[in-house]
Amino acid sequence: MRALLQRVSSASVAVDGNTIGAIDHGLLIFICAMPGDTKDTSARLAAKISRLRVFKDDAGKMNLNLAQTGGAALVVSQFTLAADTSRGNRPGFSGAGKPAEAQALYEQFAQDLRALDIPVQTGQFGADMQVSLCNDGPVTLWLDTADG
Predict the structure, then answer these.
(1) Is residue 107, in this structure, part of any structural domain at all?
(2) 10 Å Cβ neighbour count for 29?
(3) Active site includes 125?
(4) Is 79 noted as a catalytic residue in this protein?
(5) What is the pTM of this model?
């Protein structure tokens, strides 16, 4: 699985002009399932993200994780994280997981975060979504479970 994390002071996602998910302080997580990903992959990624110390402590150092700050996660599916731009000018997306499997893993990932006591809001899988955010820092991280 691939994830692009942004530390935010606020974020929301809308479909057809209606806000379907919103958080204040926390992480906006764009997520993409890749071929070969499993429920175990999802659980490991959720655990890793929940432990990442990317929030400032009283000394201003990135030393706190999401739960320690009382933050939430907004999880948005984004198959374009699987883009292959190595040839031509049009990205290829054949490296993304098949839609039915990807949707199941997207939903599993949100559930895995909830099981770790992280409040979670989500987008709508496969929908044309408008995502708004106020990046805090900015802090943006790329995680790929294929990297270990």
Answers:
(1) yes
(2) 25
(3) no
(4) yes
(5) 0.95
